[in-house]
Fold this protein.
Amino acid sequence: MKIHVKERSIMAEAVIGIGIDIIEVIRLRKLIEKWGDSFSCWVFTKKELSSVHAKVNKYQHLAGIFAVKEAIFKATGGSGIGFKDMEIFNDKTDKPYCKFRNNKAQNITINVSISYVKNYVIANAIATKKTRLSQSIQ
């Protein structure tokens, strides 16, 4: 009797890391006021800065973007990603999302969440990567 073994592969999303960050809004505001454009241009992209320009709680939103980026660093283990290699925006339903720039983290998907209270912002990130799972079929 012969047994034929075939291999079937299934694509799945595997969690590669989880990150969280909390920041005091006034702390970020003081950094921006002290260092000005040199700090803002190091951390935020032009699109991010323009997206919060007209907002009432500008510093709270910038703190949210900063916290998300820090959470992403933790979730990905750094992976050679810099502050400006990612952009944080909100979709039509106001859900935050991360868009990578400069061909960074091409195979990584990031899910993020941000919560605000008056003086604090907290963000988390879950990094996943497509993985091929193999299964033998007899």
Q: What stands out?
A: The chain has four helices and five strands. The longest helix spans residues 58-76.
